Amino acid sequence: MKFIVLIVVMGLRRMDAGWSPLLAGEERHQRWLQRCGSRIGHPNRVWWVAVLLPAVLIAWGACWLSGFWGQLLVLGLGTLLLLWLLGSHSEFRHVDELLVRGRMNDPDGFEALATDEFAVNGVPGDPAYHQQLSEQILVREERLFVAIFWLVLLGFGAAFLVVMNHAWLQRQRRHCSESETLGWQQALDDWLSLPARQLLIVSMSLAGDFTAVMERMRGAWWQLQPPPSLIVSVANVAQEENHGASPGTLHTAMDHLEELQGLLLRCVAIWLIMAALWIMLL
Predict the structure, then answer these.
(1) Is the pLDDT score of 267 beyond 50?
(2) Which among 64, 163, 188, 201 counts the fewest CB atoms within 10 Å?
(3) 113: three-class secondary structure by DSSP
(4) pTM reported for the whole predicted model
């Protein structure tokens, strides 16, 4: 059932349906943490009550519900939960809109959308600007793949845990100084992200230039906190015809962005095939 939920949610996220802010708002996870934090107070206690406890209850509920009506309930509630976790607006649709504005030679519209959706500022066509945009796109896509990985592997509870643990860390960074450590929850996030990131990189190699990706990742496979530039460089070398190419004009940048979008869509296809095979083997 979780695979069906995943397919339904991936389709719904591509639709411009005027979603409720409860599902579409950027701060939806933070609102939940803030609501729990205002009642509990201590940040570490917030993690146990707002992150771990719901994850355990969700995992228990998904295992407990069985039969036709139980699975129908899992389909409905699981779809809402996954939409809330992943957001109802697809990153792929945002990139499609960027491509449309770029191809229409609308740099102002392109810049406005990149600022609104990806928090990127600068001049379209500048190599540094598009490097930053690629990093933001890939960072968001990586979080999507991490959630999908744990959903398929261990179910809805694991997906909730990995998404909300990351949201809790973001909340803590806003309130902590740079000298303060985030504790073992940061290590948990690093280790939960590692296998999904590695699998994403392998998917890029299968969808693009396998040899170039393996060469780029030599000595870098087990970095727990790699810089965003690593995944960008992997995506660049995976695109067989553009190794080392840097956009210098808006038109060239659109070619680069379109190839990046195509690479990520091929990775999604690979992941869905692997997920289907995994579930069939269980």
Answers:
(1) yes
(2) 64
(3) helix
(4) 0.87
